[in-house]
Amino acid sequence: MKLLLKGARVIDPSQKMDARMDILLEEGKISSCGTTIKAPPEAQVVNLAGMIAVPGLIDMHVHLREPGLEYKETIATGSAAAVAGGFTSIACMPNTEPVNDNRSITEFILRKATEANLARVYPIGAISVGSEGKQMTEFWDLKEAGVIALSDDGKPVMDAALMRHAMEYAGSLDLPVIQHCEDIHLSAGGLMNEGYWSTMLGLPGIPSIAEEAMVGRDILIAEYTQTRIHIAHVSTAGSVRLIRDAKMRGLNVTAETAPHYFTLTDECLQDYDTRYKVSPPLRSEADIAAISEGISDGTIDAIACDHAPHGRTDKEVEFVYAANGISGLETSLGLSLNLVHEGILTWEKLITAMSCNPARILNLDKGTLKKGSDADITVIDPEQTWTVDVKTFVSRGKNSPFSGRKMKGRAVLTIVAGDIKYDGRAL
Amino acid sequence: MMKLAKKDILGIRDMTVDEINLILETAESFLEISTREIKKVPTLRGKSIINLFYEASTRTRTSFEIAGKRLSADTINISASTSSVVKGETLIDTARNLEAMNPDIIVLRHSAAGAPHLLASLVRQSIINAGDGAHEHPSQALLDMMTIREKKGQLAGLKVAIIGDILHSRVARSNIYGLSKMGARIVVAGPATMMPRNIEQMGVKACTKLEDAITDADVVMMLRIQLERQKQNIFPSLREYAQHYCLNRKNIKLAKPDVIVMHPGPINRGVEISPDIADDPGCSVILDQVNNGVAVRMALLYMLSGGNE
Ligand SMILES: [Zn+2]
Ligand SMILES: [Zn+2]
User: Fold this and answer.
1) Among A122, A357, B23, B235, which is 20 to 30 Å from A14 by CA?
2) Average pLDDT of span A357-375
3) How many CA atoms lie within 13 A of B85 on its CB side?
């Protein structure tokens, strides 16, 4: 199968490339990239004038819910949502039922992903058995089975000694450790950001220090043990500052944030709309500004949507009982493109945060269009305007507060290993 | 008499000054019924009201029940338990069942802030919030405003001190919303651990000493302290709390000579208010609050049922 992509503006930060190019894909690899490539016989030619082609987007933090919670999402529906949103690769968190804390679950996930044959799916293994924060899992065995990172996401690793040992042991295997930073004593009972709006609404607050205390702690562990740490879903200005300081001191700290943390504030909760309930919670305008700045200056390496699909019954309940999370894969690119429209990010920085950096953090040989690399490409129509409609979501999770929002820019072709997995050009 | 242009009474936050005045005036007109020999008018005959209480509250439930009965409505009390949520029956299931019974008004008390908003969005019946978590308790604030107005003539310009666990108090929030709309100056006081973050952005002054708050106050509103809060380490002991936040003969001298003392009840005597103050008809208006509570709830039920149309 040969595919020739003609005339797109190719933006590949890994090669500092931003030019009108043709790209030839053969045998699942990028065979050449040049100003004018003549179509070889039997090649399918796709005219992409006016489009932008970038290294396939990678979302390093999604929840696919299978095994165990298939009513919310399956590996097949989640990876379909991924390609519909422009993602060629996704890394899935282990908080399924059962938790992905052993080889057999990892192998099950990989088998299901192969059957689905859409996006590439990279399992993240649990740090502790059952993500209960007590007993370390078999990191070595998990890595051999295909796990590319470790996390107890959904919960933090509260026990600092366990975290230290996990970072040391994982460090020796070059497995990144991803922390959901939340001091559960500081956040206990909390349902939204602590501040003016929690005071107005009478909802128990989650202070920003619940996140920052653990960001700070884990940076100290990384420094002391000379290991690396990746901070998931940064939501506060204080976390951005801690991470920026750590990076300036040369520590091996990386971080991600999700589109809702640079788009929405806690004011959105004023009608107790559970679609806005996320963990960590939506914060203030000042936090939004700090996070946007953090992505722009590279303090925050990656944008990952924390795709958290839920069923109706998980969200249509009293606020206190509602599940946390947003079904994000199909809106992540559109919301992130807003940062480009607003002049906060360049295209190069956006693609760095959505492809190159996630690949680097997860040690994936991806995030590039260099000759010989996997032919994972996302083609974006930068001018297409569209309106989010959850009814059209491919994901089983229709829980999005962005329904009805106008967007500019959309993935129109998602190519994995040289195969078109999603074609939205007709939309 | 005007009709209230609202389907539900969810809180004071979304009420206008005109609406508050209208409710208070209507309540004042109902006050007289409670003094009659036959304390009943046929106004809401044939209407049915469900008191759906997920939290035990004898006072509020009884007050709504009496209010409904005095207007000749059929009142049905349902005590639900939030533990049923664990068993899978959600507020939504309950709402669907209740809707099938076709009541006119549902009065909801729930431990979760925002529960009445959820219910109101699901059913066509009018919802009255009878207290949701630490959010709002609109009928309480209305009866408090009615009582203050009765004793002081107006609300504008008064200094009102609210003392106690502001963080967990729906009574405090509804009163802050209402009294500030009506032009009163509000000072809140309590231990720093019981002060919600950014409370001053709500337009109140906040302090940690009772004495600072009640100085020159026209109205002192004491909040009930929940004993279980001690377990959350937000205060060390009732003994220490009472030593510093109990309104007594001595510290009340700091307030205006004609100060009135309020409490939403039930009182922990000797903790929030010393018994001699609570029982002093010269300053305590606690029983007036109870009496006005029935009138305010009659007004709400009446106005939500379409007034005199
Ligand atoms: Zn998380
Ligand atoms: Zn997550």
Assistant:
1) A122
2) 98
3) 21
Using CB atoms within 10 A of its CB, is residue B70 exposed (0-12), middle (13-18) or buried (19+)? buried
The minimum CA-CA distance between A194 and chain B, rounded to whole Å, is 7
With CA atoms as reference, report the closest residue to A328 among A426, A385, A261, A235. Answer: A261
* Half-sphere exposure (Cβ direction) of B25: Cα atoms closer than 13 Å: 10
Residue A264 dihedral angles phi and psi, to the nearest 5°: -120, 150
Q: Please report, in angstroms and rounded to a whole number, the separation of the first and last CA atoms in chain B.
A: 9
Closest ligand, as measured to the CA of A309: 2
> Taking CB atoms and an 8 Å limit, are A317 and B90 in contact across chains?
yes
CA nearest B190: which of B211, B161, B227, B165? Answer: B165
State ipTM: 0.93
Displacement of CA A227 from its chain's centroid (Å): 22
- How far is A264 from A338, CA to CA, in rounded Å? 13
Residue B294: both structure tokens together: 């029935």
Q: By CA distance, what is B120's nearest residue in A?
A: A271
Q: Annotated catalytic sites of A, by residue?
A: 306
CA distances A284 to A245, A259, A263, A287, A331, Å, are 22, 14, 10, 5, 21
> What's the CA gap between A382 and A405, in Å, rounded?
17
The dihedral built from the CA positions of residue B269, B272, B275 and B279, taken in this order, carries a sign that is negative
Nearest CA distance, A13 vs chain B (angstrom)? 43
Residue B76 · residue B307 · CB < 8 Å: no
CB contact under 8 A, B197 and A316: no
* pTM of structure: 0.95
The tens digit of pLDDT for each residue in B164-212 reads 999 999 999 999 999 999 999 999 999 999 999 999 999 999 999 999 9
Look at B170 and A196 and tell me if their CB atoms are within 8 Å.
no
CA distances from B189 to A115, A336, A400, B47 (A): 63, 44, 40, 43
Asked if residues B39 and B33 have their Cβ atoms less than 8 Å apart, the reply is yes
Structure tokens at B271: 């903790």
